[in-house]
Design a protein that fits this description.
The protein has 227 residues and is mainly beta. The chain has no helices and 21 strands. The chain folds into two domains: 15-123, Jelly Rolls, CATH 2.60.120.10; 138-226, Jelly Rolls (Sandwich).
């Protein structure tokens, strides 16, 4: 048994699900109103939701503790309101919202006829880390690369689209490093584990290592978080 790494797969069809007021939400981890054994948050990654909003629908949310929210549109653009300011994100952009405890924010589908889809992440950043609030931009048409979309100190988020049978790796430079991988589209082999769309994999490294992965389908997309 490899004692260097603790790993857990979060299977897509075991995610929590709610549907109300035009919002469909799939929860990788336990949240208010959904709890299941083995679905506890992974270190500083408090929630990772795959969400859809029907045309003109909106969703008001908040965090119980100090948190950083990251929004990653996948299909269609997304508006969000925080502190009286309204911002718009489109696929190829990520938005970061630093929140105080209980501070509300609103997610809005600005379209009258189209449903949108986005990833909705909540994280605790390490004390003293600088978090950029301006949206970041990446070009997912560039294949076979991990593209950064979020960073707070040594914590970071990457997204990449890969051709079938293309393999890649990322160095794990320090002990006690946490990595979470979420499959947005297609199938991958990650750290010798088969993952498909909607699956997640948590990895807690006890020493420096290399994380290797391979796309098993064309146009496969994953999100990788170093925590």
């Amino acid at each position: 048994m490899d004692t260097r790494t603790e790993a857990q797969i979060f299977v897509a069809d075991q995610r929590g699900y709610t549907e109300a007021n035009g919002a469909q939400r799939l929860f990788t981890f336990n949240v208010v109103g959904y709890t299941a054994e083995g679905r506890e948050p992974f270190g500083p990654l408090v929630w990772l939701n795959d969400e859809r909003l029907a045309p003109a629908a909106s969703l008001v949310s908040s965090a119980e503790e100090v948190a950083t929210v990251v929004l990653l549109p996948l299909v269609g653009g997304l508006e969000y309101q925080l502190g009286g300011s309204t911002q718009f994100l489109e696929p190829g952009q990520a938005g970061t919202l630093p929140l105080a405890p209980g501070q509300p924010y609103t997610l809005i589908n600005p379209y009258e006829t189209e449903t949108i889809q986005f990833l909705h992440l909540g994280l605790h950043v390490k004390p003293g880390s600088t978090v950029a609030s301006a949206p970041t931009t990446f070009d997912l048409s560039v294949p076979n690369q991990l593209l950064p979309f979020w960073q707070a100190g040594k914590q970071a988020g990457y997204i990449g689209r890969f051709d079938g049978r293309h393999d890649a790796s990322i160095a794990i430079d320090t002990a006690e490093q946490r990595v979470f991988v979420y499959i947005v589209q297609g199938a991958f082999e990650v750290a010798n584990r088969l993952l498909q769309s909607g699956d997640g994999l948590s990895l807690h490294y006890r020493q420096a290592d290399v994380l290797e992965f391979e796309a098993l389908s064309n146009n496969a997309v994953l999100v990788l978080l170093t925590l």
